[in-house]
Amino acid sequence: MSAFNAIDSDREVERDDYTPGIEPQATWCPGCGDFGVLKALKGAMADLGKSPEEILLVTGIGCSGKLSSYFESYGFHTIHGRALPIARAAKLANPDLEVVAAGGDGDGYGIGGNHFVHTARENHDITYIVFNNEIFGLTKGQTSPTSPMGHKSKTQPHGSAKAPIRPMSSSLTAGSSYVARTAAVNPNQAQEILVEAIEHNGFSHIDFLTQCPTWNKDAKQYVPYIDVQENEDYEFDVSDRKEASEMMYESESALYEGEVLTGRFYHAPDRPSYGEEKRAVGEMPDEPLVERYHDDSYEWERSYDLLDVHK
Amino acid sequence: MTEELAWRIAGGSGDGIDSTSQNFAKALMRSGLHVFTHRHYPSRIRGGHTYVEVRADEEPVESRGDGYNFLLALGDSFARNPKEEAYYGNEEVKPLAENLDELREGGVIVYDEGLVDPSEVPDFEERVEENDWHVYPLDLRGLAREKGREVMRNTAGVGATAALLDYELQHIEDLMADAMSGEVLETNLDILEIAYESVQDREFTHDLRAPEGSHDEEQVLLSGSNAIAYGALDEGCRFIAGYPMTPWTEVFTLMTQHLPKVGGISEQVEDEIAAAALAIGASHAGVKAMSGSSGGGFALMSEPLGLAEMTETPVVLIEAMRAGPSTGMPTKPEQGDLEHVLYTSQGDSTRVVLAPANVKEAYDQTRAAFRIAYDYQIPAIVLYDQKLSGELRNVDESFFDREPSPDLGSTLSEDEIAEAAHHASGKFQRFQHEPEDGSNVSPRSLPGQEGGRYLATGNEHTPEGHISEDPRNRVAQMERRLGKLEDIRDDLDAEYDHQTYHGPEDADYGILTFGSHQGTVHEAVDRLNADGHGVKSIGVSDLMPLAEREVTEFLESVDEALVVEMNATGQFRGLIQRELGRFGPKMNSLLKYNGEPFEPHEIVEGLETIAEGDEPAPTTRFVPAAGD
Description:
- The structure holds 2 protein chains of 2 kinds.
- Helices cover 32% and strands 14% of the residues of chain A.
- By secondary structure, chain A is an alpha/beta fold.
- In chain A, strands 2-1-3-4-6-5-8-7 form an 8-stranded mixed sheet, sandwiched between helices.
- The model of chain A has no long low-confidence stretch (mean pLDDT 95).
- By secondary structure, chain B is an alpha/beta fold.
- Chain B contains 22 helices and 22 strands.
- In chain B, strands 9-8-10-11-13-12-19 form a 7-stranded mixed sheet, with helices on both faces. In chain B, strands 2-3-1-4-5-6 form a 6-stranded mixed sheet. Chain B has a 6-stranded mixed sheet with strand order 16-18-17-20-21-22, with helices on both faces.
- The mean pLDDT of chain B is 94.
């Protein structure tokens, strides 16, 4: 018997089941793109029939990090840039959990860049949503790793001399097996992409364009956008690394010219997740490790039986 | 009684000094002796002077002792180009030259004349004469080359050692048969015997012989790091995340080797921030988890450590100290990270710090750290150092014949969650201000459990986990989290006294120490008492919460005290004064921070400094008591 009945249950769930008693207006400004992410995530979970109890939402710091406050599930609001290492350990410990990590562009591509690269490389079976509004919001409008060159802020008063990071290209190069970009201005596409990403067995990275009406007035650049899957001009094989890479490059260059391409850019459904690879080499138990602590019949190994090499 | 054996093997890093000494120590242990090793090595992979001492006696040994009485100088086969002499000196003769200062009078020297030229060792002949040393040059390299391969000169050296000590070769042969097979074994056995015989024909001028001992039961040879890993395993730890760093790596690699065998998970990750964060993530999900590092890596863990405190996530972190600041001296011991471990991270610290003194304590206190962490939902740190990390000691195998304890502490089952306190909105009250049982621990649920949903956050939060800056809530939560430390102090007192006492109760002088020098202090205390001083010691293990009652009683019972620690600023003494707020005029400091652990004579001299006004050893620093 599982120690986690909520995970085993097969219940009907509705969007409202993911609404806690508190409102996001406390943090998010009117018109903020973060509302769109929240809406899409609730919709995706309802579509997937996940109960709030079987979801662990791990977030970083910043406006985006507050997502776990406004989404009803098990949540872990961690520290700046560190959502991924916490999320991936929780998934390894209990693969039955649906683990979603979220953070902002500063959080994910800046301070957490190291973890982003390595989580992608290892292809952990978790979904990672990066709220990309090209600005530091909660600290009041500093330049971020995705801010365009020449962007002026209190910390870059002469205009940024740094080229923005290319999140999707970096992600693909690092090893993500699912990479998409969507936008808060279209929660419908976002919801579809989230469903696909969560269902994907491996590391799913979504660069989620969110407008910041308070600190980044250029947010309007995200409207209108083009869906690469629905536009014949952008035909490419989403499972082909090279074609996907070229499309990402094109899209990431065009973004700062005002042309916003969104959709699924890379999807490798057959690549085993890290947990599967780890099991295959004998580094991880078949059953979720957490279950063992609730199994009264399990006979715990003792160090006494491992001491032979020291005799 | 036969004289104890303190055998030192010296050579170049990468020459197999470590494995050879381990095997010899194990053979001595198997033949009934008590053993203790001390390891000295440079921060280089190959080349550079290294040595290991194996101290063996009929009676239990718990320290490296003063000097040694048998040198096996093998020569450095990776010696650098002589042109680099300015940096490294003449490495080829270092295994002989560098070790003479600590060789006791009447000691034995075997050197490899195939590699070492004693004419290049300054004043060698004079010193041999002066100290009544007994020198046996042997062409160990030639012997090994003739019968097998040059690298087997270590084996030849051990064979010669056995002959000179009148030690039965069979013990070493048995050990080799366990460790290798086929042609390699045959060749090694050949070399062993030939070396043995080639010495036997000579006339011995020395008296030293291997002591004889007999254990009552089977022994195991373990280091402090080994014992930490086994303590963790027995306490049900099945998840470790880490990044290699000397000397913490020794815990990490042993756990990594064992965990897959017992269905656990080990993760080598990108950095120490990630390592600690992974341990927190796994623990949050419901597994007993650990991480750890040494000084520099632990610095990176400062941030996740605070998160574990604020979210009340149980986790065990290991800190294996080495000489700092910064990367300092990677392979040298120091106890300079004490304050770092006690106070690092933002805000007021709510953590437990335990400092084991030897292999047995390392096992016991690691288990205690896990139990406390999971019962009280608090990070617990096991603080030790490079000395304890690498020193090997024999322990009765039966010591490890214990029951495993996979208990998750204050974690609820789904049935218990259904009965537990919930907010009117239905949200589980993970962080109640006043838990129902009157304790300061609000039981936790695990992600995936029915009815236990909550938000864990590094921000201050309400009982349900919602972020909150309400002043009343803040005070209630802070008081509850801080209150756990007082509860833990009582709990540790009730469990058993982790502090170790040595010497006569009515002694006038006291020695206080923490961590790996306890054994050395005991040896010094015995000598001082034999010399007519009344001295006793306390080895303090509970550093946070500090064993206040025990330290207070100890200090009240003596006229004067010496605080022995391996750092330059007296951090342990500072902790005692900060926590107890008195005893300043009673406490003198004896400090050592040259990268070498204390020897008993230095502590003897330190105490005599107080008692008789003598000068302390030149390698140590004496800081008199504050005030008057």
